[in-house]
Design brief:
Layout: H1 19-24, H2 26-37, E1 40-45, E2 48-53, H3 56-64, E3 70-71, H4 80-83, H5 93-103, H6 109-126, E4 133-137, H7 138-155, H8 157-162, H9 164-176, H10 180-184, H11 191-216, H12 224-230, H13 241-272, H14 274-288, H15 296-300, H16 303-315, E5 322-326, E6 330-332, E7 335-337, E8 342-345, H17 347-350, H18 394-411, E9 412-416, E10 425-426, E11 433-434, E12 439-444, H19 452-467, E13 473-478, H20 488-492, E14 497-499, E15 505-507, H21 517-526, E16 532-537
Parallel strand pairs: 2-8
Antiparallel strand pairs: 1-2, 3-5, 4-12, 5-8, 6-7, 9-12, 10-11, 13-16, 14-15
The structure holds FE3-S4 cluster.
């Protein structure tokens, strides 16, 4: 069968292509493309040909393509001056894969257990002076908070407490170095780029000093920084201070604006829907009571809050399009996308397909309830990307947002200062967030429910009843194309899954006994890349 080129968006300008229309509102442009041309369509940014693919099948083709065919690194060259030469997107493929693997344990289950308390502690600290009531710029608050939480969890106590002010200045200068000009001329001799480069040199000096100080201590902290100091390449060599700096800065950058914007939207959406807000507050009160400690395990039970976050990410994914460079022709259904073009997908457009998410503009967290599961079609919900390049920090982001609200909503009530329709996404930012100012009013809550323990027991009973269903057989299926070696499955169900130091997964029991069903399901639920399927027969 001969394959054809994707249909083209009409109305390209000479030289500029569709640049003006896309730049004005990229989401509207891509949504129109989907509505007019379907799941695939081509447009032009200056001379560059771009192909947009949306919807589950197109997303699957995009995310499953190997790196030799769709290259992710080419789209992220803008980050090289910040992360450093030879680090992650600037590293050769085999090195990049190993570096990303080394970051995984940092975002895995064991350190994650300590992060929950750290994050709740940071929220408490930041709200200490709030008093009985007041007004805040929500986005500014979330940005500050997430930089504290990420630097605390990832960089460790030295940066958070001894170098806090200097780190804020460094981070600010690095951040300013990301602008549209840097896409084309990242090393122009401009003050903004000079400050960026100076900041990169300084942070590496600080990292080098900390590595030297830690080497002299007999007991080392168990943080992300130390994990990278201890990590080894396959040939046994260590990461350099240059690489450690780049990887830590990269992890912080990846999660900062994305998490801050999502957290701000969670509160805005909840404030517009008092009924949903009440159900989330009830859930948190049940789980934690007034003074209950925010732990990793308890946070995982906050299903209503989790659905609210998922629904917020469906409507407001911070990255509205993801790009790859086509290195070898990509074939999709009747179409061929030729090497040399760029191909992109859009979480925001894919999340608004009414055949998959009915009434797509309605904020409806119950979509993810077991009886509806509107996100069950693979690659339909892609806020964190998908496939082998799915964001490794997705579990950390979820944990962070859950921990923030499990503190805030138990202590304060919130209301929007402006009319609800005034809160809109700002498409001028590379990471889409609510437009500023983004004001909310808070008031200290009077009391939380007292019967937390009773309600908790009732919830546990409900879970037990669910477990009583008789299951005849359980089958474990793994999509090895999607597995990235995160090993959350092993933490959840070590009797079924084993992951070695290189991240290679072995399934120990393909048909585990009934008593392991709950654990197997947890492994399925928490695998960040959705590589596991647990099939049961009743
Ligand atoms: Fe792989 Fe998911 Fe386990 S990525 S190692 S199946 S947690």
């Amino acid at each position: 069968m001969t394959q054809k080129a994707p249909p083209k968006v009409p109305g390209a300008w000479p030289l500029l292509g569709h640049m003006l229309k896309f730049g004005k509102n990229p989401f509207r442009f891509m949504m129109e493309l989907r509505n007019n041309l379907g799941e695939i369509g081509e447009f032009r940014m200056f001379h560059q040909k771009m192909v947009l693919m949306t919807g589950p099948e197109a997303n699957e083709a995009f995310f499953r393509a190997p790196d030799e065919q769709l290259d992710q690194s080419a789209a992220y060259k803008i980050m090289t001056p910040i992360f450093g030469k030879g680090v992650v997107f600037d590293a050769p493929q085999h090195k990049k894969d190993q570096q990303l693997k080394m970051l995984m344990p940092v975002l895995r289950d064991k350190p994650m257990r300590t992060y929950a308390q750290v994050i709740a502690g940071e929220v408490e600290e930041m709200t200490r002076d709030w008093g009985e009531q007041g007004e805040i710029d929500l986005l500014a608050f979330m940005k500050q908070l997430t930089i504290y939480t990420s630097s605390h969890c990832l960089l460790g106590h030295e940066f958070r407490y001894e170098l806090n002010e200097e780190f804020s200045r460094i981070y600010h200068d690095l951040e300013k170095g990301i602008n549209p000009l840097a896409f084309v001329f990242p090393y122009l001799p401009l003050p903004v780029f000079r400050r960026r480069d100076k900041a990169r040199v300084r942070i590496e000096e600080l990292v080098t000093e900390i590595i030297a100080k830690r080497a002299k201590k007999s007991s080392k902290p168990e943080d992300a920084f130390q994990m990278l100091i201890d990590a080894r390449y396959d040939d046994g060599s260590k990461l350099s201070a240059h690489e450690i700096t780049g990887m830590l800065v990269g992890a912080i950058f990846a999660g900062h604006h994305t998490t801050a914007g999502t957290a701000a939207w969670v509160l805005i959406e909840l404030s517009k829907r008092p009924d949903i807000l009440k159900s989330v507050i009830d859930e948190l009160d049940d789980l934690f009571g007034e003074a209950g400690e925010v732990t990793f395990q308890e946070l995982r039970k906050a299903e209503k809050l989790e659905n609210v976050i998922k629904e917020t990410l469906r409507l407001h994914p911070p990255l509205i399009f993801l790009i790859r460079k086509v290195m070898k022709d990509l074939h999709f259904k009747d179409y061929v996308i030729k090497a040399g073009k760029y191909v992109c997908t859009s979480p925001r457009v894919s999340h608004r397909i009414p055949e998959i998410f009915p009434n797509p503009e309605v904020f409806d967290p119950d979509r993810y309830n077991p009886d509806r599961q509107e996100d069950k079609i693979p690659f339909s919900w892609i806020a964190f990307g998908g496939g082998r390049h799915k964001c490794s920090g997705n579990a950390f982001a979820m944990l962070q947002i859950k921990a923030i609200f499990s503190f805030l909503l138990r202590k304060y009530t919130f209301e929007l200062v402006s009319p609800p329709e005034a809160y809109q996404d700002d498409f001028e930012q590379m990471v889409v967030q609510p437009k500023e100012p983004c004001l909310v009013r808070y008031r200290k809550r009077e009391a939380v429910v007292e019967n937390a323990t009773e309600q908790k027991l009732a919830m546990e009973k409900k879970t037990d009843q669910r477990q009583e269903e008789v299951i005849q057989s359980i089958q474990v299926k793994v999509d090895y194309d999607l597995c990235q070696g995160h090993a959350t499955c092993m933490t959840e169900a070590p009797e079924i899954f084993q992951v070695d130091k290189k991240g290679i997964l072995t399934v120990l029991q393909e048909n585990p006994p009934q008593e392991l069903l709950e654990k197997a399901k947890m492994a399925e639920k928490y695998c960040p890349t959705k590589a596991i399927k647990i099939i049961t027969k009743k």
